[in-house]
Design goal:
Strand content: 35-45%
Distance between the termini: 23 Å
Radius of gyration: 14 Å
Number of domains: 1
Shape: globular
Strand order of the largest sheet: 1-2-6-7-3-4-5
Structural class: mainly beta
Length: 109
């Protein structure tokens, strides 16, 4: 299975519909890898993302080779997330964070 990588463009279908207007294209900003974080490395903030499930605003940060999402109380999200944005930011400028398993999952129904 191919996984998203930074700067790739991915198509995402909203709702189960063959109408091409229901397909959206997103630029992958990054994929978090909390297991790669090495304790003691500096954490450098680099913007914010909105969580697709909870709506929480999360800090995007980098530390060495790790991309991280940090929530309230500086708690690090411990599962991998895809960070992405619509390729037409004038339509939707939001940067989103979605759990990797959900991003890669199949539509139901």
């Amino acid at each position: 299975m191919n996984y998203p990588e930074p700067r790739q463009i991915w198509q995402h279908q909203k709702h189960r519909d063959d109408d091409p207007a229901k397909w959206y294209e997103y630029k992958i900003v990054g994929v978090t890898n909390p297991e790669a974080y090495v304790q003691g490395h500096a954490i450098v903030p680099d913007g914010v993302a909105k969580h697709t499930e909870s709506g929480e605003i999360l800090d995007i940060a980098y530390s060495g080779t790790a991309t991280l999402l940090i929530g309230k109380g500086f708690s690090m999200l411990d599962e991998p997330h895809v960070i992405y944005q619509n390729i037409c930011p004038d339509i939707d400028p939001t940067i989103w964070a979605r759990p990797l398993n959900d991003f890669m999952g199949q539509l139901n129904g």
